[in-house]
């Protein structure tokens, strides 16, 4: 069983459906929710008062309590709890949409054409920024180069993040602006791609990206607000009523506070402070921020990094890559350094969420949590998390249980990576990769997310990947390592109740039980009665947060 507290009896006593106050009745729906035990329940009407659920049930039963409540006819559509993405990057989503977006490009030529068009449309931009490229999809068999980028833009710096955010591609002007030469050394935890003569070729991996990132102009207040507005609008349109923002800085924290104060957040944000440096020191002076702005903003977690990503071979592996026998990836710091960061965050009462992709990184993270609990035994109650837990040694997966760790995993990573994952790590190590059922069967809570904009923020893509382990063309037949797939109920739980639990919010979010916030969506199909192959096609018709509509699809 998952380690979720059972609040069903308490909820029935405190929020008994004898309450008569109500201001909203949503009826004529095919409603689904989980209860606090994770069991799927059905209803045809939902009663709401002051933004919180009063009751679910039949129209006949709820009419007695509805009084003069506004009635919304769901027209037989499916109603689900609002979906929560347990690992996304909100402002980065907005920037990705507002900058040069290479997401989905199928070839190097297509990507270069997009960059050229973006440059032409932004003649006054001093730097051209963007991202979303993936050389694996392009079938290059290598990284792209600065010279190829120079062919379309040579007059000003261009800097384009890889789809996973763990590598970036520069043109010659960008490298010149950052002072990058043949003599520039690889920083700790990073790698500069070079040619046979040792000259930088234009791609920077993991820690090496900072060599150019640090030279970028800081986004203006207007650009930050535009990015947040863009991201919130897209999140609402795909049914996300909450997101765990996996790594914010001080300016983003201040922007979130401002939006919360102004009532402009249309999704609940659970933010992780990036690192334990100066921004953490400033933000944490008054301790964790919990339920700010009517539960729209919580900042009680820290995001740390143990390694890079699989696609750029920066994920730290215990043995060399199967397709690159001289490379085992990159650990970002020594174990003692990581443990010191965990200690600092726990000492201030913050949940610790650590990015770990490779099996070496995951082992280092498990060791660091074990070491930190010796000096902070109460740290177990913080519900610490391993973000991604993507490739874990089979002997390390059981260690999540005594360490009380949440596996914050992204189902679409499996279906995006299946074209190269086994090439990278081989048939043995793949047994501990994207191993959802191995975690679920031992009782580990899986919090579902997407890692947007690395992947699409559409949670129905994640639900589909979790259930089918196939791409949108139904490949491979039967699914990729289908013994690790989830049931539809397990998948919904990962993106609702489990995601809420991972953010310490299962008492107020994640289900449509009495007393919880009325965060819900209306969609165009029944994902439980329909074909699993169609889950990804689900369209969101309406999104409601706290009993207020924040999105309606255009007819």
**Number of distinct beta strands:** 23
Domain module tally:
3
The Rg value, from CA coordinates, equals: 23 Å
* Beta-strand percentage range: 15-25%
**How would you characterize the largest beta sheet?**
8 strands, mixed
CATH topology of the largest domain: TIM Barrel
CATH superfamily of the largest domain: Metal-dependent hydrolases
Mean pLDDT: 94
Shape: globular
* Helix and strand composition category: alpha/beta
Proportion of helical residues? 25-40%
Spans where pLDDT lies below 50 across 5 or more residues: 1-19
CATH hierarchy: architecture of the largest domain: Alpha-Beta Barrel
Number of helices: 20
How far the N terminus sits from the C terminus, by CA atoms, comes to 43 Å
* CATH class type of the largest domain: Alpha Beta
Word description of this protein:
The protein is α/β, with parallel strands linked by helices and 555 residues long. The protein is built from 20 helices and 23 strands. The strands form three sheets. Strands 1, 2, 3, 4, 5, 21, 22 and 23 form an eight-stranded mixed beta sheet that branches. It has an eight-stranded parallel beta sheet with strand order 6-13-14-16-17-18-19-20. It starts with 7 loop residues before the first helix and ends with a strand.
Question: Would you kindly provide a brief summary of this structure?
Answer:
The chain has 20 helices and 23 strands.
List keywords for this structure.
single chain, alpha/beta, Diaminopimelate Epimerase, Chain A, domain 1, TIM Barrel, eight-stranded mixed sheet, eight-stranded parallel sheet, 20 helices, 23 strands, globular, disordered N terminus
């Amino acid at each position: 069983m998952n380690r979720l507290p059972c609040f069903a009896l308490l909820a029935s006593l405190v929020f008994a459906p004898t309450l008569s106050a109500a201001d909203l009745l949503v009826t004529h729906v095919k409603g689904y929710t989980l209860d606090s035990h994770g069991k799927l329940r059905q209803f045809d009407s939902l009663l709401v008062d002051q933004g919180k659920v009063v009751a679910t049930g039949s129209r006949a039963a709820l009419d007695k309590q509805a009084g003069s409540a506004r009635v919304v006819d769901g027209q037989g559509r499916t109603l689900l709890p609002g979906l929560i993405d347990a690992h996304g990057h909100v402002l980065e989503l907005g920037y990705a949409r507002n900058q040069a977006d290479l997401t989905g490009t199928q070839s190097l030529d297509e990507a270069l054409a997009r960059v050229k068009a973006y440059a032409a449309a932004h003649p006054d931009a001093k730097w051209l920024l963007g991202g979303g490229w993936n050389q694996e999809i392009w079938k290059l068999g290598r990284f792209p180069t600065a010279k190829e980028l120079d062919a379309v833009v040579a007059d000003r710096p261009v800097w384009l993040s890889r789809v996973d955010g763990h590598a970036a591609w520069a043109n010659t002007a960008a490298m010149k602006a950052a002072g990058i030469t043949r003599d520039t050394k690889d920083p700790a935890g990073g790698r500069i791609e070079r040619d046979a003569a040792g000259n930088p070729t234009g791609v920077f991996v993991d820690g090496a990206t900072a060599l150019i990132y640090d030279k970028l102009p800081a986004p203006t207040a207007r650009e930050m607000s535009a990015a947040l507005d863009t991201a919130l609008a897209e999140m609402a349109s795909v049914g996300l009523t909450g997101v765990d923002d996996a790594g914010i800085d001080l300016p983003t924290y201040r922007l979130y506070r401002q939006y919360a104060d102004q009532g402009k957040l249309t999704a609940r944000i659970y933010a992780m402070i990036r690192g334990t440096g100066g921004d953490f020191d400033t933000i944490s002076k008054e301790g964790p921020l919990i339920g700010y702005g009517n539960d729209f903003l919580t900042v009680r977690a820290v995001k740390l990094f143990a390694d890079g990503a699989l696609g750029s071979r920066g994920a730290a592996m215990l043995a060399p890559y199967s397709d690159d026998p001289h490379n085992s990836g990159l650990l970002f710091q020594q174990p003692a350094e990581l443990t010191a960061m965990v200690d600092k965050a726990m000492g201030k009462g913050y949940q610790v969420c650590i990015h770990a992709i490779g099996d070496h990184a995951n082992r280092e993270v498990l060791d660091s949590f074990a070491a930190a609990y010796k000096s902070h035994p109460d740290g177990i109650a913080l519900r610490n998390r391993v973000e991604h837990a993507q490739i874990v040694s089979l002997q390390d997966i059981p260690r999540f249980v005594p360490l009380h760790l949440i596996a914050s995993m992204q189902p679409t990573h499996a279906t995006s990576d299946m074209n190269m994952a086994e090439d990278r790590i081989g048939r043995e190590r793949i047994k501990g990769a994207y191993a959802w059922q191995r975690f679920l069967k031992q009782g580990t809570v899986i919090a579902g997310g997407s890692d947007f904009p690395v992947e699409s923020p559409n949670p129905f893509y994640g639900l589909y990947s979790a259930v089918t382990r196939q791409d949108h063309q139904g490949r491979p037949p039967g699914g990729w390592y289908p013994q690790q797939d989830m049931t539809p109920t397990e998948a919904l739980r990962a993106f609702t109740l489990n995601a809420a639990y991972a953010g310490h919010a299962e008492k107020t979010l994640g289900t449509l039980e009495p007393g919880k916030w009325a965060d819900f969506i209306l969609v165009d199909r029944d994902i439980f009665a329909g074909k699993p192959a169609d889950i990804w096609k689900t369209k969101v018709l309406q999104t409601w947060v706290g009993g207020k509509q924040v999105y309606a699809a255009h007819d």
